[in-house]
């Protein structure tokens, strides 16, 4: 029987010749038929993960599994994986048809089979009729589609996409995001997509792995990661955040900006220093004295649909607020928010520590 996971990394570490650790004890599972995104800043190890999956490099330690079988040493051409590279890596001297047909010709497929499969792949990416075009006569978005057709024609179980949209302008990029997501749904195969663009990751993925410095900081659905960032790196990297220092008084009670607030977090040692995240859209402007925080409007920028304001509280913390209300720089106003809007983070807590704390805390809750 097929198990749900198609790829599994178990304690994978990768170091290169000079002993710098590029991936540090990384473990994760990729399930069949989902759209995954590896998200993180330049140099964090995203491409290295793809290269380990594709078989271009081997792990220094740890295991890589595909379909339940260990594949650490399996050569790239024996893996049921195809890669779409950032620069597409198309063959400039071959036309569209031959670019897509390339892998099938290497496998010595019959002419009639090649014709039927290339035709189908091109129709999947809306390029029917472009068979005889030269690559040099194709636009950036069309080249992108040829590169995808070349990957799907081999019917791999997994497609790896390394920042495939970064060369496109914003409008085309947004269109291709929809197209890729739609294509993944229609094909029903696993996509592992790399980007350093957080909005792109949020818009496209079933699951996101947020990576920094060779470690997975957090994994989860876009909503999980946006709503419940587990550390400062994730909170800062995903969306816009207000992050201020505070202190946990006890379960459900936290102190910051010189006041105590009811919150929904627990399982943290009393009086432990913590960081507080509140998303700008969770802050509501009120009249002076009517909110939970008293602030002065420090700056204001018009962003087309809303104003983006920074407000300063008595302790000197800056609060980013989005509003359509008319307020002026120098105004004293109140800020209101729900207990659920307060996200309490321990300093540098890892995903495992966070999971362990949650488990323990909910058990204690259950036991009264
Ligand atoms: N063959 C190699 N030898 C030595 N160091 C390498 C090698 N390949 C990658 N690295 C280093 O490993 C780290 C991670 O590289 P990787 O290409 O995985 O980053 P990335 O997350 O894909 O970044 P980007 O967003 O810039 O593409 C970098 O510091 C890089 O310099
Ligand atoms: Mg890269």
From TrEMBL:
Domain of life: Bacteria
Catalysed reactions, semicolon-separated: ATP + H2O + polyamine-[polyamine-binding protein]Side 1 = ADP + phosphate + polyamineSide 2 + [polyamine-binding protein]Side 1
Keyword Cell cycle on entry: no
Enzyme Commission number(s) from the entry: 7.6.2.11
Domain ABC transporter positions: 7-238
Keywords of this entry: ATP-binding, Cell membrane, Membrane, Nucleotide-binding, Translocase, Transport
SUPFAM superfamilies: MOP-like (SSF50331), P-loop containing nucleoside triphosphate hydrolases (SSF52540)
ATP-binding is among the record's keywords: yes
One term of GO molecular function: ATP binding
Assigned protein family: Belongs to the ABC transporter superfamily. Spermidine/putrescine importer (TC 3.A.1.11.1) family.
Subunit structure: The complex is composed of two ATP-binding proteins (PotA), two transmembrane proteins (PotB and PotC) and a solute-binding protein (PotD).
Family matches, as PANTHER family: SPERMIDINE/PUTRESCINE IMPORT ATP-BINDING PROTEIN POTA, SPERMIDINE_PUTRESCINE IMPORT ATP-BINDING PROTEIN POTA
Physiological role: Part of the ABC transporter complex PotABCD involved in spermidine/putrescine import. Responsible for energy coupling to the transport system.
Entry protein name: Spermidine/putrescine import ATP-binding protein PotA
Gene symbol of the encoding locus: potA
């Amino acid at each position: 029987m097929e198990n749900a996971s198609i790829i599994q990394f178990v304690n994978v570490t990768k170091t290169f010749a000079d002993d710098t650790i590029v991936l540090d004890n990384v473990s994760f599972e990729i399930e069949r038929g989902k759209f995954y995104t590896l998200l993180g800043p330049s140099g964090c190890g995203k491409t290295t993960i793809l290269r380990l999956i594709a078989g271009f490099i081997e792990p220094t330690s740890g295991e890589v599994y595909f379909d339940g079988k260990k594949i650490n040493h399996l050569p790239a051409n024996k893996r049921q994986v195809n890669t779409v590279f950032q620069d597409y890596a198309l063959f400039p001297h071959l036309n569209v048809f031959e670019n897509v047909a390339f892998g099938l010709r290497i496998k010595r497929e019959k002419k009639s089979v090649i014709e039927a499969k290339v035709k189908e792949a091109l129709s999947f990416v809306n390029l029917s009729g472009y068979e005889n075009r030269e690559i040099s006569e194709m636009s950036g978005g069309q080249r992108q589609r040829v590169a995808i057709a070349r990957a799907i024609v081999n019917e791999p179980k997994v497609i790896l996409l390394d920042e495939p949209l970064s060369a496109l302008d914003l409008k085309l990029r947004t269109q291709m995001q929809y197209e890729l997501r739609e294509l993944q749904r229609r094909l029903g195969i696993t996509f592992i997509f790399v980007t350093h663009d957080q909005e792109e990751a949020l818009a496209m993925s079933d699951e996101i792995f947020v990576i920094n410095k060779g470690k997975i900081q957090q994994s989860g659905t876009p909503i999980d990661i946006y709503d419940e960032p587990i550390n400062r790196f994730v909170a800062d990297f995903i969306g816009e955040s207000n992050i201020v220092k505070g202190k946990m008084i006890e379960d459900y009670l936290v102190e910051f900006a010189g006041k105590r607030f009811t919150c929904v977090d627990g399982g943290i040692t009393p009086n432990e220093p913590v960081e507080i995240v509140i998303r700008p859209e969770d802050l509501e402007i009120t009249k002076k004295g009517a909110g939970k925080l008293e602030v002065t409007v420090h700056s204001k920028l018009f962003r087309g649909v809303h104003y983006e304001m920074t407000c300063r509280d008595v302790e000197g913390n800056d609060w980013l607020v989005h509003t359509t209300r008319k307020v002026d720089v120098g105004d004293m106003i109140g800020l209101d928010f729900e207990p659920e809007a307060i996200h309490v983070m321990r300093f540098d807590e890892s995903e495992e520590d966070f999971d362990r704390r949650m488990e323990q805390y909910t058990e204690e809750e259950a036991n009264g």
